Amino acid sequence: MDNELNVTYITFDGHVELQKYRYLYFVIMFTAYILILCSNSTIVGIIVINKALHEPMYIFIAALLINSVLFSTAIYPKLLIDFLSEKQIISYSGCLFQWFIYYTLAISEFFLLSVMAYDRYVSICKPLQYPTIMRKKTVYMFLILAWILPVCQMSMGPLLIANEKLCLFILKGIICNSTINTLQCVSSAVVNICGLILFLGSVPLPVLFILFTYTRIFIITYRSSREVRRKAAQTCLPHLLVLINFSCLSTYDVLLARLETNVPKTVRLIMSLQMILYHPLFNPIIYGLKMKEIYKHLKRLFCSDKLN
Question: Distances from the Cα of 289 to the Cαs of 34, 51, 99, 166, 272, in angstroms?
């Protein structure tokens, strides 16, 4: 719908019993947002402060957790405002921007997981060459590419559909995700092809690369000593858990959310909340508890008062 200033607004239609539970939704999501900020920032702070953790593996973990904070910050403030508002609306340009940030950071997540897998492969399978391969310049280059490439890839999307005519102004969801394409009067073949190419390059290819890398690691470590196998499992298992979790949620978001099926609103809401709630909280828990060095510093931080 257009107002006097000729601004197109989109209405979110994915909330369930919002009038009845708006304050409960707000408290739960606000608490979750604070937990996401605090948990991710705590581990990033530990990595930054402790020089012993200034290694590529921990630097990549810090980058992944920063990515989670940015991802949540692009979603939660608007979501919290919607919970307390009479109308859950967003301008079309604002929706495109949220969509752009949402998927740019999601793609960055896969790129960072790919870089982490490569780092583990070099560390475990080529330990003597590790200092030469994973130099500071190489690490910084990987980090820059992990954020710059998704920006370049996703910038095409808003440019292609920004001027498309809309026939629908109600979005079946609570955030601007891939369902934004269903609002257009005519489905653009160019946009669909570009979207498919982008999806293949951003999700299946990185996932296959990561699985191939870890398969090589497990094959090589299987022939090694028990200590090497223990080290490989200790450092690789958290990455695999995060990968599996994020891949499943991303697949639903990109593919199932665009299918023209009568999925119950409650199911859509639960799956949307899984993506924005579960994963950003899952990362710090996994890396905080499963990574021995990080857990040691966390324990020292929170138990220091008791020890004194």
Answer: 19, 20, 32, 47, 26
Q: Indicate yes or no: pTM above 0.85.
A: yes
How far apart CA 145 and CA 108 sit, in angstroms, is 9
Q: Residue holding tokens 């559909």? A: 161
Q: How close are the terminal C-alpha atoms of the chain, in Å?
A: 63
Q: What angle do CA 252, 258, 263 make, to 5 degrees?
A: 75
CA-based max dimension of the chain: 72
User: What strands lie across the sheet with 9-12, from one edge to the other?
Assistant: 89-91, 9-12, 170-171
DSSP assignment, residue 179?
G
d(CA 66, CA 202): 19
Q: Most confidently modeled of 31-40, 177-186, 195-204?
A: 31-40
58-104 pLDDT, tens digit per residue, is 999 999 999 999 999 999 999 999 999 988 999 988 998 998 998 89
Closest CA to 117 of 60, 34, 53: 60
Give 44 or 232, the one with higher predicted confidence: 44
- Let me know: does 54 contact 213? Beta carbons within 8 Å: no
Contact 23, 49 (CB under 8 A): no
